[in-house]
Amino acid sequence: MRIVIAPDKFKGSLSAPDVCRHLEKGLQAGSGGNLDVIRIPVADGGEGTLDAAVGSGFTRRTVTVAGPTGEPVDADFAVRNHEAVIEMATASGLALLPQVMAGGRPDPETAATATSRGTGQLIRAALDEGCRRIVLGVGGSANTDGGAGLLQGLGARFLDRQGNELPSGGAALANLHSIDFTDFEPRLVDTRFVLASDVDNPLLGAQGAAAVFGPQKGATQQDVDMLDAALARFVEVLAREIGFRAVKAAEAPGAGAAGGVGFAAIAVLAATRRPGIDVVLGFTGLAERLAGADLVITGEGSLDEQSLLGKTPIGVARAAAAQGVPVIAVCGRTTLAPGQAAAAGFEDVYALTALESNVDRCIAEAGVLLEQLGTRISGWLAAEKPTGTAHTKEDLRV
């Protein structure tokens, strides 16, 4: 019997590859090692996208780039032939801020000064590897700089009225007078970009990058107003340099993603925005690898109403349904009613909280609990159900 395990991470507990590993261990223990298990860690374009790429045959690369505060950090990206996958959070992520790493919250100062420069430097490193198709997975960013830092990392110079280069961060854009593209990376002309993002916010206004996401990065209301005005100035100056497409890009769905990095990607890099889960399922080859499968197991840490908006388990369920393969989901916890789960395409949903009611223990012992669940599922498969038949909630109940 062939089982495909295609989960997202259990955030704060296990990476997607770890979820796969523990589930397979339990499945094989229950079956005596007689199952053909295919592990395909997946993600929705944000955190975990890099792991999904490496799990699908990409090779991990590590380079030193500027972190969100300008301090050097070691950041990874992944390469396969002429394609690269970049997870922005590895270079410019909120989790890299010193106060967040110390267990605190981001503060207003970093909200105004954090930069996406390291993401641009990652793109340059991918170009050095010969890549000419780059997937840019955005999410979890620390910056609200409109992607100005990304462009700086690629050679652009942001200048004030006196011709001095601006400091990093969104706040500095209020003093932007011109952008010098003289030394801008020439290899970008022959490079195609995919912006992997489910965020459909524009760059500016009440639904823009500063207003919606700024407070999550430490911005006060005063900071939000200041950053939004600074980003508007960025659009105005960039439009003088590259034309009206900059104005159009600021209004495009996804321009507000990752503190406005979506804007720079769309306006300057001519990136095509696609739902993150579609991008990841594409480069993992999930559809092709479902051939001959008897069951798919997917999941994520919290399976809830937000999941129904297109998160990883829903994307996997749709891909499996297209080939008539039944799907069950595992998760740390779930708030979905049985009817919601069934409508989403799941035969059943299994939460670790059903095995261990103490949430802290579920988080700390998620691997062990997943192995227990895998053992029960494989035991049922071996003893009760022939290959290729439907899997019902009653059959799989644990």
Short description:
With 398 residues, the protein is an alpha/beta fold.
CATH class group of the largest domain? Alpha Beta
Strand order of the largest sheet: 3-4-5-6-9-10
Radius of gyration: 22 Å
**Poorly predicted segments:** 386-398
Q: Could you say how many structural domains there are in total?
A: 2
Portion in strands:
15-25%
What's the CATH H-level homologous superfamily of the largest domain? Glycerate kinase, domain 2
Category from helices, strands and their pairing: alpha/beta
How many distinct beta strands? Answer: 13
| Count of helical stretches | 18
- Gross morphology: elongated
Architecture of the largest domain, according to CATH? Alpha-Beta Complex
Q: What name is given to the CATH topology of the largest domain?
A: Glycerate kinase, domain 2
Average pLDDT over all residues: 92
- Helical residues, percent: 25-40%
The end-to-end span amounts to 20 Å
Biggest beta sheet attributes: 6 strands, mixed
Model description:
The protein has 398 residues and is α/β, with parallel strands linked by helices. 40% of the residues lie in helices and 18% in strands. It has 2 domains: 2-40 and 285-396, Rossmann fold (3-Layer(aba) Sandwich), CATH 3.40.50.10350; 49-276, Glycerate kinase, domain 2 (Alpha-Beta Complex), CATH 3.90.1510. The protein is built from 18 helices and 13 strands. Mean pLDDT is 92; it is low at 386-398.
